[in-house]
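Hi V.,

You were right to ask for the full record rather than a summary. Here it is.
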Amino acid sequence: MTGAREMFEGHSTFRATCMSWKFEALSKR
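Predicted structure:
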C-alpha cells in the first residue's frame, strides 16, 4: 500500500496550496 501514503501526501499538499491561493486572493482583494 504505497499509493496510500502518496495519496495522503498529495492531498495535504493540495490542501495547503488551496489555502495559500485563497489567502492570496483575499489579500489582493
